[in-house]
Design a protein that fits this description.
The chain is mainly α. Helices cover 67% and strands 0% of the residues. α1 packs across α7. The longest helix is centred in the first third of the chain and has 29 residues.
Length: 232
Amino acid sequence: MNTFDLPRRFAAEALGTSLLVATVVGSGIMAETLTHDTALALLGNTLATGAMLVVLITILGPISGAHFNPAVSLVFCLNRSLPARDLPAYLFAQVVGGIAGTIAAHLMFALPVLEVATKLRAGPAQWFSEMVATFGLIAVILAGLRFERRAVPWLVGLYITAAYWFTASTSFANPAVAVARSLTNTFSGIRPLDLPGFVVAELLGALIALALMAWLLKPETVQQYQPLKAEP
């Protein structure tokens, strides 16, 4: 049972999502400033994001669970790990924290406080990519919590690092981060018009993962069989 009260868990979720988005957006701006090689820029963006996830989940996980993601919070609510009464506060903290992260990144690089993104990210391949990315993220979290709880920060950081490269969408896998990225017209941006498709795909991937992992991780009932007795 989490011993931290809701205001402190709220603050941890907002802070964690803010620092995560500041890392995603800020490292994208830095990478784009330093190189015109898109692959190298994506690599810089990837490494910074994966590393930050390990740090944030490690230090804030004991306080709030370190969701930083509405899809994760929804899954934990559905499997009764998060009380339903706390879900709205978590979602609000994540969205507000994400927007604050975009603002922080812009201020650090002397950009307008907020911008409307113009980067096109739409189409069946992008949506399917987001469904796969979020499915994998939820599966990693649920299995990690079941089998190797202390490794979860590394598992999530490494998964997202990989998913940046094997998904066509570069693995947002997070509705709050997607909203925050719609407010930056930089390397990591996404057009607001493309947000609904991403969010629906992410939530669908999360729900499929929850259903599959609930079955896959269900403890087996061990049946005891009595050996047959030899006939005299």
